[in-house]
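Chain A, query sequence.
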Amino acid sequence: MGSIYKNIQDAISKGEKLLAVLIDPDKFSIENTFSFIEKVNASVATHIFVGGSIVDEGATNYLVSEIKKHTNLPIVLFPGDVSQITDKADALLFLSLLSGRNSEYLIGKHVEAVSKLRNTNLEVVPTGYILIESGKETAVEKVTNTKPLNRENIQYIMDTAQAGQLLGMKLIYLEAGSGATTPLTKNIISSVKQELGIPLVVGGGIRSKVQLDNAYDAGADLVVIGTAFEDDESFFDNLRK
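Chain A, predicted structure.
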């Protein structure tokens, strides 16, 4: 694996906790790039993720190019579709939707992506993506035509995560979904973490410093926050370096 994944591993080995700010090109005003990234740079954020379930053609490439002008943080693609792949970024989460049974999002889209990836220098990180129900239908459900896992069936969530690791995934991403009404519980996160020997990423529904700390305390190695910043940029005030 490349330097970004190695840096994640090194940070975890030192007991450091990582934070990614997720920017959805479909919901972000490009005119706001400079002021927003200034706040990201002044925060404890360690990564910038870019992606969304439905994004206009070319929007990701343009946004990543603009972000690059204002930060040295690694920019990682979190794509909802092949059209969001751009070599302007530093790395790509190669997401396989392990919680669903739609073959397009287990392997189909990945095959489609290969012709694009051949012509890039993107660091590709195989990532097992597990969507867990959060009280509302998410964009991921609509786009992929799959259902999330029941949050009460923790053993099944654990088994799904472990299956991803055994398949060779380098990250497991537990996701409550964009705009989730409630974040994942500490019990879910800690139970999955105990099963894994690879980094655990957690996202969805985190809108406060307390919820962020709860995710870390439960075992999340990297937490992803998007909607909270979209709704209220003052949330950055709680995350200053």
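The chain has one domain: 3-232. The chain has a mean pLDDT of 94.
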